[in-house]
């Protein structure tokens, strides 16, 4: 049956520019659609929401041979997830407030201003390379305290790590996993070494806060420090790159909405929420039931790989009116752009500030801009979906 190949077709690079017809097919076939390899695919809003909040659904990854490292807390269950997430959030300010992030607003605006100034005399730019990538990587490096001369190291590491985390039908992932592990080890060693240089010599950044935690009971182990800081870098910039790029692409395809935002910049926060629903940076998440579980009358056996198609849920017509229409004034916009439940993205406040600042700075330059290529070339990853390049003529 065609429904048994949906995950393979969604993962097929040929469908990366527009997977949404496949998501519609998924919702029609669902709520639970079994794949040829035994995986269960779910794309309806209410079922996804319930499973993201169900403690019987585990975020811990399936074993692929020998376990070589402890997963980051994004892929752990409570109570270990809660412990590490709480410790990681401490440097953001008590009680896990966005105070440190809010304090970065001025720095984010300054970095954005430098990037837009560099576009002033350009006739053609790549939104990814010239803007959407440099902004969040610079911001997360400043938060963590990475020297400016070392910021370029992280693009190679993160590209490999993200590629190794893709979701798709079972295949030989040995080489991909090996490359991902090597990149994690190199990046982890760098960050731990950088933190150790600040032991006893606080410098006010997050690495310094982690290594100089005064309470021994609250300190991260070396392994936890490595995995946590890697996660902060990946989550702190990779999805934001896609959010900004997808946002620019969406507006250039809709000149009327672009002009409206240029006239009414106060709509930007709501427009960013709609971008997170309409063209989200994260499309899928995997969960594993710890017991047999019933979903809409279908029993999913314990240990089954369950792929939650978040991007499909955010376009479910049973939850959103005219879901395939981009509407920056949409009310009641409770999307899955940052997930939901205990693993809700803790970097969401930073991503929102960066996206609003970036798009606000770009809007004056986009009035007469046009896409050089539509659809643009996309990244390979089906889970973290966004253009690899977005060339535009100014």
TrEMBL record:
Molecular function terms from GO: heme binding; iron ion binding; monooxygenase activity; oxidoreductase activity, acting on paired donors, with incorporation or reduction of molecular oxygen
Record has RNA-binding as a keyword: no
Domain of life: Bacteria
Keyword Metal-binding on entry: yes
Name of one Pfam family that matches: p450
Gene3D superfamilies assigned: Cytochrome P450
Xref: SUPFAM superfamilies: Cytochrome P450
Keywords: Heme, Iron, Metal-binding, Monooxygenase, Oxidoreductase
PANTHER family xrefs: P450, PUTATIVE (EUROFUNG)-RELATED
Family statement drawn from the similarity comment of this UniProt entry: Belongs to the cytochrome P450 family.
Protein's UniProt name: Cytochrome P450
Organism: Streptomyces mirabilis
């Amino acid at each position: 049956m065609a429904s048994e190949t949906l995950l393979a077709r969604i993962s097929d690079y040929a469908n990366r520019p527009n997977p949404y017809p496949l998501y519609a097919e998924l919702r029609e076939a669902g709520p639970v659609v079994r794949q040829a390899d035994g995986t269960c695919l779910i794309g309806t809003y209410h079922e996804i929401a319930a499973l993201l909040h169900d403690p019987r659904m585990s975020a811990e990854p399936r074993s692929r041979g020998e376990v070589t490292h402890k997963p980051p807390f994004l892929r752990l269950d409570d109570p270990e997830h809660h412990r590490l997430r709480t410790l990681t959030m401490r440097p953001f300010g008590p009680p896990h407030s966005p105070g440190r992030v809010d304090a970065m607003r001025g720095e984010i605006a300054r970095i954005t201003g430098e990037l837009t100034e560099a576009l002033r005399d350009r006739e053609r730019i790549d939104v990814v390379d010239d803007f959407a990538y440099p902004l969040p990587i610079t911001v997360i490096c400043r938060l963590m305290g990475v020297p400016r001369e070392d910021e370029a190291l992280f693009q190679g590491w993160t590209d490999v790590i993200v590629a190794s985390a893709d979701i798709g039908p079972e295949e030989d992932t040995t080489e991909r996993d090996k490359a991902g592990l090597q990149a994690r080890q190199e990046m982890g060693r760098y960050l731990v070494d950088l933190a150790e240089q600040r032991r006893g010599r606080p410098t006010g950044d997050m690495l310094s806060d982690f290594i100089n935690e005064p309470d021994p009971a609250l300190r991260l182990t070396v392994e936890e420090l490595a995995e946590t800081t890697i996660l902060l870098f990946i989550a702190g910039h990779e999805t934001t790159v896609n959010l900004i790029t997808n946002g620019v692409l969406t507006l250039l395809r809709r000149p009327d909405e672009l002009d409206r935002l240029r006239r009414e910049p106060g709509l930007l926060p709501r427009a960013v929420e709609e971008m997170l629903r309409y063209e989200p940076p994260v499309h899928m998440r995997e969960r594993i039931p710890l017991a047999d579980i019933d979903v809409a009358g279908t029993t999913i056996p314990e240990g089954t790989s369950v792929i939650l198609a978040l991007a499909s849920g955010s376009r479910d017509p049973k939850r959103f009116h005219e879901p395939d229409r981009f509407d920056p004034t949409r009310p009641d916009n409770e999307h899955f752009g940052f997930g939901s439940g205990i693993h809700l993205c803790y970097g969401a406040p930073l991503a929102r500030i960066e996206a609003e600042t970036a798009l606000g700075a770009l809007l004056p330059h986009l009035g007469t801009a046009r896409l050089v290529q539509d659809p643009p070339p996309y990244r390979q990853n089906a889970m973290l979906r966004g253009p690899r390049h977005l060339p535009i003529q100014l």
